């Protein structure tokens, strides 16, 4: 499978290079230039097909030109000791819960897969790699789980002061582990600016094999594709009409993963998302991507610390407004509608919803009648465990969900007792220590 850049269609690289380079030199982001038609395989899978088996098959489709099916299966098996949950709520409504994982976030699956892929492939090439990321704390707690025992990957994680959590002492670099947490002075925006300065130095990036664990990395993004065929396999015998997905906008990584799954020939009729400033619906009903107002060649380079999935969305549809209009449905949602949706999910189905899940369900309430009238079905994507949004649940519903022990542990604060850094130069010094 070949990959190209959103800003240079003449570029063609293998999956391994797209993962390791993180962003192409032209300042765009990597996207697939061709995708396998897996129609026969998709119709063969069913509710008995495991998540790791689906991931292994799709991994083979992604990197069959580079690695054997055995290696692909090993990557998927090592990455996914847990599975998402798909439940039927009504005749035509299902919920996908990809938060039954390490720390209660849907990203757990993508980051675990990325680490598994890198560890296996680096082992074969005899190389090392380093993650350099900003985190509010959740990513560090996750890497605390999935980097344990890895021999070829380390992570330098940059936090605002006082936000380190969920890291065990034995996993710290200075204790022989793989994680180097560091607190930095400044706002989140200022810290991300300092990290981006590191990635502007291509020689430094190459010397340390630096990459990121967010969805700027195409491996992290494409691993979210696995959610969609797995969901289809679980519900295919329970639906007769078209299948639509409703999801929070987020950084549009889940939407892009769903669109790529459609390119793999998965039966998907469309995606409903709440409107945002970046993607909204015009008065005539057409979806509008705000970034498209500025030509690609006039934009600055992508910052790897800030996922650029909106640019991937533009590249996917290649300015084909009619095609986009028939697949992506932004819907205006108010705070009142969101709260009403959260209450109904709890009263009708016993489901606690965070703000994002409530927004996605509000989209179904607002715009789903036409789908249901045409015998279509919705899959509601509930990305993160509701206990991570206990205050929102208490405010809207008056009750709070129980927090599982693994999430409690991931939330435990950690005192580093190490100097707070101030700049990109300090980060360079830390990379030198590794």
Task: Please tell me about this protein's structure.
- The chain contains 19 helices and 15 strands.
- Helix 5 packs across helix 6.
- It is 42% helix and 16% strand.
- It has a 6-stranded mixed sheet, sandwiched between helices. Strands 8-7-6-9 form a 4-stranded parallel sheet, with helices on both faces.
- The chain is globular.
- The model has no long low-confidence stretch (mean pLDDT 91).
- A hairpin with a 2-residue loop joins strand 4 (85-90) and strand 5.
- With 434 residues, the protein is an alpha/beta fold.
- It starts with a strand and ends with a helix.
Proportion of strand residues? 15-25%
> Main sheet: which strands, in order across?
4-5-15-10-11-14
Distance between the termini: 33 Å
Task: Note the overall shape.
Answer: globular
**Helicity range of the residues?**
40-55%
Total number of helical segments? Answer: 19
Indicate the mean pLDDT: 91
Number of strands: 15
What would you call the structural class?
alpha/beta
Specify the biggest β-sheet: 6 strands, mixed
Uncertain regions spanning at least 5 consecutive residues: none
Q: Whole-number radius of gyration?
A: 21 Å
Summary?
The protein is an alpha/beta fold and 434 residues long.
List keywords for this structure.
434 residues, alpha/beta, 6-stranded mixed β-sheet, 4-stranded parallel β-sheet, 19 helices
